[in-house]
Write a structure and sequence with these properties.
Blueprint (H helix, E strand, L loop, with lengths): L8 H10 L8 E4 L2 E4 L6 E2 L2 E10 L2 E8 L4 E7 L6 H19 L9 E7 L2 E7 L4 E2 H8 L4 H20 L12 E3 L6 E2 L27 H4 L6 H17 L9 H10 L15 H9 L11 H9 L9 H7 L16
Antiparallel strand pairs: 1-2, 3-4, 4-5, 5-6, 6-8, 7-8, 9-10, 10-11
Helix pairs in contact: 4-6, 4-9
């Protein structure tokens, strides 16, 4: 039996998409689809624009063709109504994304091909993946079986492990940033708010990432590391298995309080078909204190690959796993980034 709890994710996505008009991307709505408008530039740099893949508050993503080698690419642009100072800051972050993701060479991370600026529009050209985001898959199909969920999470963990070896922390692992394509590796994308090992700091008190998926240390402004991405991937795994997120609250304050202080419901509360061993795996991935989690993404991936061979939790262990968190983060001792 599967029970579902309402998640604010679709609403948040809707608000995000409402921040920019389709015309800003040079497209107009047509019967739930999009077509090129007459004033749309058909090229961006050397790239020939083919179609619009998505749009958000800060810009658009297009499918395009690189005519020099005949390769399809995805083009991410920055196009927003900002002041000169704001635009300069967003351009800096935008190009930092290319610099960050471009350093990670791994089959489970989207490859960056090029970065540039054409007619005042900054853009990143990246690997085009023919498929759907995990967000689209879950919205259309509901929760996944344990095998499918572990196959996806294992590959994401492998991509994160490669990034973490370079001291790059993604900080926004969520279903919308995971691409699924039939017969192809799962791809992690959008390193737009990733943390670089160059001393780059963020605004004090600013939560970067999607609140539904952020780790407790991100909520209170503690410096993050790879274990923060492990927590976010744990939330994604929980959602894949149950069809809902582990921490509730439609108001952001209630949601963040839950992330910091409350135990997540056992996955069997929403989907009785989830094998019991995932209670142990998720309890470790979603531990409030980083020291109580998997200490790296590779360790998490190992248990995901080997879940069928892990011992089934005893009734006593299950009872212990469902108790309130024994250790949480003390805000008074946390350093801000």
């Amino acid at each position: 039996m599967i029970l579902r709890r309402e998640s604010p994710a679709p609403f948040a996505l809707m608000i995000s998409l409402m921040r920019i008009a389709p015309a800003r991307c040079g497209w107009r709505a047509l019967h739930f689809g999009l077509e090129l408008s007459l004033d749309t530039p058909r090229t961006l740099g050397r790239y020939e624009i083919v179609s619009l893949l998505g749009q958000g508050g800060m810009g658009c993503v297009y499918k395009a063709l690189d005519p020099m080698i005949g390769r399809p690419v995805a083009i991410k642009t920055l196009s927003a109504d900002l002041s000169a100072e704001e635009l300069a800051e967003f351009k800096r972050r935008f190009f930092r994304e290319a610099r960050t993701a471009g350093r990670v060479a791994h089959p489970n991370v989207v490859t960056i091909y090029d970065v540039g600026e054409a007619d005042g529009t900054p853009f990143i050209a990246m690997e085009y993946v023919e498929g759907r985001t995990l967000r689209a898959v879950l919205d259309a199909d509901g929760p996944l079986g344990a095998e499918a969920a572990c196959r996806i999470a294992t590959q994401v963990a492998a991509g994160l492990a490669a990034a973490h070896k370079l001291s790059i922390i993604h900080r926004d692992v969520k279903p919308a940033n995971i691409m699924i394509a039939a017969g192809a590796p799962v791809k992690l994308m959008d390193f737009g708010i990733a943390k670089l090992p160059d001393g780059t700091k963020t605004q004090t008190g600013l939560i970067l990432g999607s609140p539904i998926y952020v780790a407790p240390e991100q909520v209170i402004g503690r410096s993050v590391d790879g274990r923060s991405d492990v927590f976010s991937l744990g939330v994604v795994l929980y959602e894949m298995l149950t069809g809902t997120v582990p921490f509730g609250g439609l108001a952001v304050g209630a949601l963040l309080y839950s992330v910091l202080n409350e135990a997540h419901p056992p996955p069997s509360a929403y989907n009785t078909r989830v094998p019991a061993v995932f209670e142990r795996i998720l309890a470790r991935a979603l531990a409030k204190h980083p020291d109580d989690r998997y200490q790296d993404a590779g360790e998490f991936a190992h248990d995901l690959r080997d879940w069928r061979n892990l011992p089934r939790p005893t009734p006593e262990e299950l009872a212990s796993l469902r108790e309130p968190p024994r250790r949480t983060l003390d805000r008074r001792t946390m350093r801000r980034e």
